[in-house]
Here is the input.
Amino acid sequence: MSTTGCASGQSDRAVPTGTIGGRVRITQRGQAKESRRQALLAAAAGLFAESGFNRVSLEDLGAAAGVSGPAVYRHFPGKQAVLGELLLSVSRDLLDGGRDVVLGSPGAPEALRRLVAFHVDFALRNPDVIRVQDRDFSNLTEADQAEVRALQRSYVEVWVDVLARLFPQVEASDLRVRAHAAFGLINSTPHSVRHHGRRMAVKSARPILEHMAMAALTVPAD
Here is the structure.
């Protein structure tokens, strides 16, 4: 599904070599490769957010992750693939996490509250990724753009399904507007949090964001 992989065309993810107690066993070499791959993605998030995709080179990425520029090709076929995997992996994590939140909630009211807390936590922990999504989405390949959009639409529907249980009289299209409004409110805050005392800003922003998002999501229908 994603465009990641090493230059030889073989996947550079950790390779299972057997099972222990029913669990997949990963080689130390595979674990080290996956750690370097994740370090490259983390470095990419910070560099792309700070300078923009077009101003960051593979050498910059490698240096930030502690490897040489050419070594990046052992994990990704190019800079565009790094961007693709960064945004695809985040979109998958949001969708999977949102679904898990709903499955683990005793009812729609609690599911909505937990979804809001989940998304606020994501936004406050990943301000760089949000900035990259906003600014550099157009630099993805067409295939990655389509996949990211599909994952994000599915994530929206997780919220809409919960809202529909709370407000069965409201049209689904209106519930989507509420969900998108809540995302916009939550996702905008990390832009300002970067420029203040981060620890205190995050601590104070969390309850405000959760309260405001719940208000936007649960506004009475006309």
Summary: Strands lie at 16-20, 23-26. The chain has a mean pLDDT of 84. The chain has eight helices and two strands.
